[in-house]
Amino acid sequence: MALNGNAEERAARTAAWLGAVVNVLLTVGKGGIGWWTGSRALVADAVHSAADVVSSAAVIIGLRIAAKPPDQDHPYGHGKAEMISSILVGLLLMGAGIDVGVGGVRGLWSPPSQPHVAAAVAALVGIIVKEALFRYSYTLGTRLRSRSLLASAYDHRSDVLSSAAALAGIVLALVGRRVHVWWLLYSDPLAAILVSLLILRMAVEIVRDASRTLMDTALDDQAVEGFTRFVEEVPGVVRVDGLRVRDHGRYLIIDVKIGVRAEISVAEGHEIAAQVKRRTMEAYPNVLDVFVHVNPYFEQEGRGS
């Protein structure tokens, strides 16, 4: 898969920039309306969107770095830059979640606010816009195997959940004001606390997933076995002596040791190795490179060396 200058890269950057612009608009809109109407839940939701602005910037930078081709200092490419940006997104979400939760707890010990209908409308608009962004980013991120885009997609989904919680709190507070049930007015700060818990949960999942890839956690056995069986079917390969897969987020790099008949020439062994690399990369578009080590296989002894 080409990693620079192609349509997929442009689509990924477009999605990241679209998310950044929308996050800025939602931050200003929800923050302004929340302050005007006195809705703590909507202000908390605006804080979440503000953190998303920084998250979007991290995703844009991560995509730009990850698109660079391998070089002398980075022979395996720059794909893990997306993991770093994903972790940054998660950490920013954690900070936003804690801030939102503290604000909600403080609201429980303050005189209850009485949100306006405009606050509910703003939260509803946020839900619709962010759900559309989630579906767009998730579909594109899955197709491109872009961890940073997927992290951004789940960030959008956390906004949907937080806006939904905010909407519920605002509506209950409005109902409480209408029917003169005073304790329902505290639904707004309670919704802010619920929003914070949803944000923290999403943040932990994003950081945990990206950290596993950064630490070169092995792919599941089923995926490795699939690559092994494929290589074994390449003509000239007697057996696979070992196979490891490096997950760089959007692409994979394979290290494989193959056994070939010991009596063939070096040139023939090299050609078999070249076939292993070429066929694997053709069959699996998400494989950026295949490093093949050739072992002689002695048929009489039934082992490689």
**Low-confidence parts, pLDDT < 50 over ≥5 residues?**
1-5
Compressed to H and E, one letter per element, the order equals: HHHHHHHEEHEE
> Which CATH class of the largest domain is shown?
Mainly Alpha
CATH architecture of the largest domain: Up-down Bundle
> Hey, roughly how much beta strand do the residues contain?
5-15%
Count every helix, treating DSSP H or I runs of 4 or more residues as helices: 8
How is the main sheet built? 4 strands, mixed
Structural class: alpha+beta
Total domain units: 2
Q: Radius of gyration from the CA trace?
A: 26 Å
What is the 3D form? Answer: elongated
Distance between the termini: 33 Å
CATH superfamily of the largest domain: Cation efflux protein transmembrane domain
State the share of residues found in helices, binned by percent. Answer: 55-70%
Which whole number gives the mean pLDDT? 78
How do the strands line up in the largest sheet?
1-2-3-4
Number of E-state strands: 4
CATH fold type of the largest domain = Alpha-lytic protease prodomain-like
